[in-house]
Amino acid sequence: MAEIKTKVNEASVEEFLGTVQDEQKRRDCFEIVKIMKQVTKKEPKMWGPAIVGFGSYHYKYESGREGDMPQIGFSPRKQNITLYIGVGDNSDNPILKKLGKYTTAKVCLYIKKLADVDRNVLQELIAESYQKAH
User: Fold this and answer.
1) Is residue 102 within 8 Å of residue 82, measured between CB atoms?
2) Where do the structural domains in the chain lie, given as residue ranges?
């Protein structure tokens, strides 16, 4: 069985986000940290080399594979900011209609920049996701 790379570690969130090349994306990421800290009342931690996470939960699949993941988190990727907030392709969350410009995948919400979305709606989605994962 392959080793799980997404583990909490002691790397500095601030240093990691400081390496984000695009200035707007870097500022947006620091803003997302503020929002997630406000919602979770937890300090951000690095998970693997590129995910900023808040809180943690233990999962175990029927296959026997198990591990820990952040309850919510995000990662500044080249194309967009990926938010791991339990909102994805199968989401019928009515709040999404009010969010603004975004795309989804399995369990991810992608935004190009914070200016594309309503911050209050984003905060509501983050809070809802965190409460469900709690």
Assistant:
1) no
2) 8-133
Residue that the structure tokens 């940290």 belong to = 33
Each residue's pLDDT tens digit, 3-37: 667 788 999 999 999 999 999 999 999 999 999 99
The per-residue pLDDT for range 73-86, each reduced to its tens digit, is 999 999 999 999 98
CB 8 within 8 A of CB 46: yes
Note the CATH number of domain 8-133.
3.90.1150.200
Residue 128 to residue 51: CA distance in whole angstroms: 20
Query: Rounded to an integer, what distance in angstroms lies between the CA atom of residue 21 and that of residue 76?
Result: 10
Whether residue 72 contacts residue 104, with contact meaning beta carbons closer than 8 Å, is answered with no
Q: Whole-model pTM?
A: 0.90
